[in-house]
Amino acid sequence: MVTLKDARRIIAAAEKKAEEIGQPMNIAVADSGGNLVSHVRMDGAWIGSIDISIKKAYTSRAFDISTKDLAEHSQSGGQFFGIHASNGGQIMIFAGGIPLMQDGEVVGAIGVSGGSGEQDHAVAEAGADAF
């Protein structure tokens, strides 16, 4: 289970990484049902990335895969091509979403948006590592 206390710790670690790389981010944490537990928009982060970060967390939990990996498989000709059109448009196939694991089970996810895919993934990893 991902509690609000957990989400705050995850977000704090992700914020620290975002500050280190000098890129303000939107950071979302979802529970096992893909529901938002907490979200932070760092000062200067794009408002358009709020929705993307939340959807990255949802996507990562919905399919129990990082959005970076899902993106690789959803390109034209890939096994998941077109998946972004499923689930009422909630699926994001940009890097930055990572499942949160506890005792070998996926119990939630983090979604990060506001930089390049590489930056988003690095910040999400920092948050996931804090869990």
TrEMBL record:
UniProt cross-references to InterPro entries, sorted A to Z: GlcG_carb_metab_protein (IPR052517), PduO/GlcC-like (IPR005624), PduO/GlcC-like_sf (IPR038084)
Designated name of the protein: GlcG protein
Transmembrane segments: none
UniProt keyword annotations, A-Z: Plasmid
SUPFAM superfamilies (UniProt xref): GlcG-like
Species of the source: Acaryochloris marina (strain MBIC 11017)
Keyword Transport: no
